[in-house]
What we know:
Elements: H1 2-33, E1 40-46, E2 52-56, H2 68-80, E3 85-93, E4 97-101, H3 110-122, E5 130-134, E6 169-175, E7 184-187, E8 194-201, E9 207-213, E10 217-227, E11 231-236, H4 240-254, E12 273-282, H5 287-291, H6 296-311, H7 317-331, H8 354-364, H9 368-376, E13 396-403, E14 406-414, E15 420-428, H10 434-451
Parallel strand pairs: 4-5, 8-10
Antiparallel strand pairs: 1-2, 1-15, 3-4, 3-12, 6-7, 6-11, 9-10, 13-14, 14-15
Amino acid sequence: MKKFLYIALTLFTLVLLQTSSEAKTINNVIAESGINKDAISISIKDVKSGKEVYQLNSNRPLSPASTLKLITLAASIDTLGPNYEFKTQLYKNTNNELFLKLGADPFLRSKSLKTLIASAKKKNVISPKAIYIDDYIFDKNEWGEGWQWDDDLNPLMPKFSSYNIDGNLLGIIITPTSTGAPANITTNIFYPTTFINLVTTGKEKNNISFSRNNHISPDILTVEGTVSEQAVELIPVNNPKRYFILRLEQAIRDEKFDYYGNFPQKKLPQQNVYLIDEIKTPIKYTIVPILKDSNNFIAETVFKAAGAKFVNNTGSLNNSLKMFYEYCKKEGLNNENIKIVDGSGVSKNNLITADFMTEFLVNQSEKPNFEIVKTLLPTAGEGTLKNRMLYFKDNLRAKTGTLSDISAIAGYITSRNGKTYAFDIMISDPKAKNSDKKILEEYILRALYTNY
């Protein structure tokens, strides 16, 4: 009996020493990085057992940046269902009136409107009395809570609305002329914009910047810098509805369709209408750009669409939050220490804990609806990990997040010993370089991969 107790005690001591050694490895990596330890939050859990094997400030709420997309996308797909489709539909009623029912499709393009108008012509729709637009899928709020005013021209953050089309982005073409002379500036498609052209033609590498004051002159764009070869820059449109209407008018002209009226808003009637044609985009097409390219526009659209379906009414942030917190309740996730204000992680008002993220990842790891998300998470060398984490090859699947002063990464890693862990690392140190934060993330994961 004494011999048995001695062996058991010895094994227990060895386990403690091993655990201490593993933790020390990560601790040493953090200490050697020079980044403030209090600005780092880490949680690592064994996916199979759910047991936390390492933590540092894991219950401290920090901004998750774009790693939030993991959570909001999962909740949205669970609500919408894997077979959900964004639909833009054209209907006709018995009074020879057309109804364009918007679905806020983030992949809708100008040519899609031409397809719908062409279908109306083929079905012998002639001189409709009116063309109404049913835009009630989303509310009128086109910008996220806490989004920074100076991101207004950031092509990664266009406005999102019922009137989504062409990614809500306008192409600006800057063409050099002769050295020292002003460049030529045009748009790739008609949209009322006045340019203050301060771009000169030079011989050095292109260096172009944009600015505008939406409160004073939203249609005036100042363009500055030098250009040596033609450049095409994408700029968020300041009024998605106006941009959409212009594209609809152009489609009508191009198809020589006999209609010259306005496009008043009106809800699609429930009776005495028939479908002329529709443009559909499956929800599965949104997953890769959200996870691998971290597309904020698509992430926000999906999140708001899920809110719309949850209440079977107009989508809004409040309805999306109701959907999200109901999802947490259903999954048994304690959301008391988190705050969500958008679907993309752009806002610094978003706060989650590393413990919540790993709890979510463990919880979802075997769920059928999450399988497609898990499978399409970027691995080393893909998407936002294109030039990162190459050391791990296919043993890592993770979502990154970056805001000013903030770097984060969350996902799954299979260690050298064959165990799979859910992890979340958030670093919020304004004094540290962003590159140093990224390096620290990798070396923490290397310590995890090698020693656990």
